[in-house]
Amino acid sequence: MILEFYKYQGTGNDFVIIDNRNNQVPALTSKQVNHICDRKYGIGADGLMLLGKKEGYDFEMIYYNADGNQSSMCGNGGRCLVKFAHKMGIHKGAYYFIAIDGPHDAEIDSEGKVRLKMQNVNNVAYYGSHAILNTGSPHFIKFTTHIKDISVSEIGKEIRYSKEFEEEGINVNFVEAIDDDTIYVRTYERGVEDETLSCGTGVTAASLVSAHNDNGFNRVEVKTPGGKLSVEFDKIDEEHFENIWLCGPAEFVFKGEIVI
Fold it and tell me: Active-site residues: which are they?
């Protein structure tokens, strides 16, 4: 079967996207998804998404990690899918779509950047030098210094496959404070099983636990190896965060066809 695909990236977090609003794509096996995302033998991507139809929503987001498994929410993927939906003729002032973790609002601003509303966070576990929370996907946040010298793949893998997290897996983020409202984040992603250039839900999680304003509105600027993002949110207390928006670029790269 020949599939038409589109390649998008958001701060270097890259995705293969297929328009499946007509349900023309058969159920993809994990082996097929893994092949498509393979950087040597396939197209190459951190994940694959299907743009689907869903009553009551502008579209449905179906996301697979590069390992071939359908996965939890991907923030940068969601932003890229909004941009793709617009390219496919879904033109809205504000978007409302459904993903695996529930409904999301989104907007495309005047500069073409995408703002994606994330789910509220109601539980954060703090352990001194690290924190654990779920922003649509589970994240381990480790505060550090000299972040550019860290072996993210090696240390991230050790934490992700440790006894505590091995069964379900966890994304591991290394975070360094640059100033009061700017952080640098590097992420080891489960499902990719390596460092990625950026991770939207990871950036979101890191921003929440780095809030400079103890109560009320916060905006955190985030640097990643793949580019810059920002996260806006209201901090209610140490464990509760609302009105969370992930903001940044989402760009078309190329389109093509692949035989599966």
Answer: 74, 199
